[in-house]
Amino acid sequence: MPAEPFTTVHGRAAALREDNIDTDIIFPARFLLITAREGLGRYAFHDRRFAGDGQAIAGFVYNDPRFRAAPVLVAGANFGSGSSREQAVWALHGLGVRAVIAPGFGEIFHGNCLRNGIVPILLGREVVTALMDRAEAGLAFTVDLAAQTLTVTGEDPIPFAIPRERRLALLNGWDETDQVINTHGADIAAFEAWQRRTQPWLHV
Amino acid sequence: MITRPLPSGAGRPRTLYEKLWDSHVVANRPDGSALLYIDRHIVHEVSSPQAFVALRASGRRLRRPETHLGVADHAVPTRERGGEIADPLARSQVAELEANVAEFAVPYARLDGPEQGIVHVIGPETGFTLPGTTIACGDSHTTTHGAFGALAFGVGASEQGTIMAAQCLPQQRAATMQVELVGKRHPLIDAKDMALALIARIGANGAVGHAVEYTGEVVSGMAMSERMTLCNMTIEAGSRIGMVAPDARTFAYLEGRRLAPRGELWDAAVAYWRTLPSDPGARYDRVVTLDVGTIAPQVSWGTSPDQTLPIDRTVPDPAAIADPVARREAEKALAYMGLVPGQRLDSVAIDTVFIGSCTNGRIEDLRAAAAIAMGRRVAPGVTALVVPGSAATRAQAEAEGLDRIFTAAGFSWRHAGCSLCVAMNDDRLAPGQRCASTSNRNFEGRQGPGGRTHLMSPAMAAAAAIAGRLADVREFV
Ligand code: SF4
């Protein structure tokens, strides 16, 4: 589905000082029975945000009014590992997250971010730890995808990299399926003709 | 003859992964990624609804409906089959899948039919999974199919929509990693122990960015079920892709399966598949060697699969961990798991046992568990489930009398599904309950909010059921 074009993100950053925040933590499996992709923000980090009785758990960053609507998330290594569920990304998006900074990502989650208007920013662990301090101090972060820079207000920009095709798709709000079909229709047909000839058992 | 431009590097020795990649490149893209052709796609009820919605919204059809296979597995009840699903959400999710596969002409393994089961169990069982193919599924354990020498990986719902409409996916080429398994294993050490020991060594993100190929005499001596367990667990080391080169055992497993090629096509396919193994002299970006002779039965103690130790050890003391990050992770895990540093692992009492999942729900797994359960009783107060990975596995187990061994020992014998691996149906831990599990993830809340999971092999889980605590299966022979 065509997304909104990605524009520069500016605002607070929420810090989650933990490694291995998997997609089961981001979006617990029992909510996967919901088949909508909109309105999932309320389930993001559900079991970290809410106790069994539904009360907000004090101390969790998204229960802190200063960070509730933070568009940037700074997290530990291996963020988004585990299950491929795209709901994890839809829920973060629903929460208002537009950029995630971490020293490492689960690979499927990383790809899912790029397809859903969230920029995954990979930086070294020391840099990320320093950014967590800035985030907790309430400083504003700016993510400029076109320039591929992250800037904490008053500091030097930090460069990051997103592959060109992905960056253009995000900036323009292109839909991947449309892009593939419109750009490569003839290539796909040629490939299938070749495969039918050389591996006919795949085309019966 | 239709010719295709040779991919760069062809002619030099290539690894299995490179051959699979090169043979599926539809187009190279300016930023170094490629458009990859997808031969096979498996669709289940939980991750596919949004992909079908997108397809319908764009007015598109499936490019090749016959290359997809639908099945309900994640949310389905396992106590009985055939009646109405009690949970209204699960019921409507299965109904939505059935409506989608009917509308888009996707072959479907009916919930009460003989081919139903977990996506990664029925793919191989039906012959849908073949060497030399690319296979995608909206599930991270799609790594499993790599055991057949396929390039198989998990995808998100948006990617599923792209595969349905275009039969292709933009992908970034991975680095390669060889995991060589050598040595002579103890007879009660299985592929699960090896996978857990490997993950404990390289870390839960130890293989990120790499396509893993398992090699060595231990792997060539393994049955397909064990190869599948190894490949299945590869995602728990952070890699989307785990593979084993196809060989005579692979072909013997597949020959005659319903969707496998037959006659001349079979011969042609086998001739092609024999060209897939990595060439002598092919280089991997990384090599890890594991001596399986030194491995004891493994059990996870924490909330990440790399927090795993041999059963004869004690719960680690975070204070003794030098790295501050690892120390904090260990403290967090012990608090969640309700464990005390220094406590013997084989003294940890459990109240639930789960034998099943796409990691360990195959007939060989059930046989290994039954061999321990035979003539023994599940400890008082312990609830133990055996959930076959597929209807066919269940039927085979019943033909062998395994179900009677389990029920006589006090295990509950179930129908096929994901069940307590993901706790989306009514098989779920209560907060604080502790489970000896043959599944693949010990994440917080994975088996139900507040539930505590210890990962292990099928024989180890059966031993835990009998002992009522984590136990060393070597003491049960
Ligand atoms: S058994 Fe578990 S890991 Fe396997 S497909 Fe089902 S939910 Fe996923």
Q: The CATH topology of the largest domain in chain B, please?
A: Aconitase, domain 3
The chain pair with the largest interface is: A-B, 63 and 83 residues
How far apart the termini of chain A lie comes to: 31 Å
Radius of gyration of chain B: 22 Å
Radius of gyration of chain A in whole Å, from Cα? 19 Å
Please provide the count of β strands of chain B: 19
Main sheet characteristics of chain A: 4 strands, antiparallel
**Which fold name corresponds to the CATH topology of chain A?**
Aconitase, domain 4
Would you tell me the structural class of the helices and strands of chain B?
alpha/beta
Principal-axis shape of chain B: globular
How many helices of chain B? 16
Helical residues, percent of chain B: 25-40%
Tell me the number of helical segments of chain A per DSSP (H or I, 4 or more residues long): 7
**Could you state the CATH homologous superfamily of chain A?**
Aconitase, domain 4
Regarding quaternary structure, what we see is: heterodimer
Strand order within the widest beta sheet of chain B? 5-4-3-6-7
Uncertain parts of chain A = none
